[in-house]
């Protein structure tokens, strides 16, 4: 101890300055690293796991199966050709393939699409870059079913009619559309953005139903999903063309 005290007393002003600078640099590096991890965690939670990890709290950070996947076999004919619009990291496309459906996906975000393509060797060739409302006819169109889960809230209310028309437009006659729509507490939304800063609009299920009726689709089923979230409610809606 006397040894250390003697050494401490011997530090010059320049040495003290270097020590303080070194400590400040480490604090800055750690702060940046913490911020980066926080941002990554937030964006992971925001997409792909939105309906589960944050709202339903199923089995951990990323449940192996999404909440909407429980509806696939009861909603679509066996082996149906299904398009997942806004497929994110591709979890539902994988689930659909596992269930024997002929599944395809579109996703406009490059990073999410890359995650999907790396997820499963069956996905390259089955995932394309496209989004709403300019969906077009991916993979030649003519789908027996479309899944659009936790996506429409990212569209502005003015874009909703064209987006729903586009979803209806890729369906065969008698084709089915399965939607998962959130409703976030209004006071959590600021200028059309959620607390994570993403564009977010609460689209009333009644408006969605009316717009899809204009596009020739009838509501078959509407069901609220029980969630543990006090701020967001989720509804699953099934339509038929
Ligand atoms: C919350 S994530 C849901 C991902 C996936 N559907 C799921 O349930 O796991 C929202 C996804 O919608 C995509 N998205 C955002 N705007 C979109 C648009 N205009 N058309 C299609 N997808 C969009 C995002 O890139 C993201 O992958």
Task: Walk me through what this model shows.
It is a single chain. Helix content is 37%, strand content 21%. It has 241 residues and is of the alpha/beta class. Strands 3-2-1-4-5-7-6 form a 7-stranded mixed β-sheet. Strand 6 and strand 7 (232-240) form a beta hairpin. The model is unreliable at 40-49 and 53-61 (pLDDT under 50). S-adenosylmethionine (SAM) binds next to helix 3 and helix 5.
Short précis:
With 241 residues, the protein is of the alpha/beta class. Helix content is 37%, strand content 21%. A 7-stranded mixed beta sheet has the order 3-2-1-4-5-7-6.
**Strand-pairing-aware structural class:** alpha/beta
Molecules bound to protein: S-adenosylmethionine
Helicity range of the residues? Answer: 25-40%
Strand order of the largest sheet: 3-2-1-4-5-7-6
- The count of β-strands is 7
Low-pLDDT runs of 5+ residues are 40-49, 53-61
Q: Write down the Rg.
A: 24 Å
Which outline best applies?
Answer: elongated
Q: Averaged pLDDT, please?
A: 87
What is the chain-wise order of helices and strands? HHHHEHEHEEHEHEE
Query: What is the strand content?
Result: 15-25%
Give the helix tally. 8
Distance from first to last alpha carbon: 83 Å
Major sheet size, sense and barrel closure:
7 strands, mixed
List the helices and strands and how they pair.
Layout: H1 2-10, H2 13-46, H3 50-54, H4 72-75, E1 81-85, H5 91-98, E2 102-106, H6 110-119, E3 127-128, E4 143-149, H7 160-169, E5 171-184, H8 205-214, E6 218-225, E7 232-240
Parallel strand pairs: 1-2, 1-4, 2-3, 4-5
Antiparallel strand pairs: 5-7, 6-7
Helix pairs in contact: 7-8
């Amino acid at each position: 101890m006397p040894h250390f005290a003697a050494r401490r007393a011997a530090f010059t002003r320049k040495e003290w300055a270097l020590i303080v600078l070194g400590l400040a640099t480490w604090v800055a590096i750690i702060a940046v690293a913490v911020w980066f991890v926080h941002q990554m965690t937030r964006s992971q939670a925001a997409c792909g796991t939105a309906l589960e990890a944050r709202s339903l709290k199923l089995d951990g950070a990323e449940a192996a199966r999404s909440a909407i996947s429980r509806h696939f076999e009861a909603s679509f004919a066996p082996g149906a050709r299904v398009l997942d619009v806004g497929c994110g990291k591709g979890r539902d496309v994988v689930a659909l393939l596992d269930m024997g459906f002929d599944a395809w996906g579109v996703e406009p975000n490059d990073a999410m699409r890359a995650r999907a393509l790396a997820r499963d060797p069956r996905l390259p060739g089955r995932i394309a870059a496209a989004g709403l409302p300019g969906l077009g006819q991916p993979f030649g169109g003519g789908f027996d079913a479309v899944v659009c889960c936790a996506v429409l809230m990212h569209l502005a209310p003015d874009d909703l009619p064209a987006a729903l028309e586009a979803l209806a437009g890729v369906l065969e006659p008698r084709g089915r559309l399965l939607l998962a729509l959130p409703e976030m507490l209004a006071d959590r939304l600021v200028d059309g953005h959620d607390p994570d800063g993403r564009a977010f609009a609460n689209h009333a299920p009644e408006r969605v139903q009316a717009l899809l009726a204009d596009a020739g689709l009838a509501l078959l089923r509407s069901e609220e999903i029980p969630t543990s979230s006090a701020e967001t409610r989720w509804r699953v809606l099934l339509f038929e063309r």
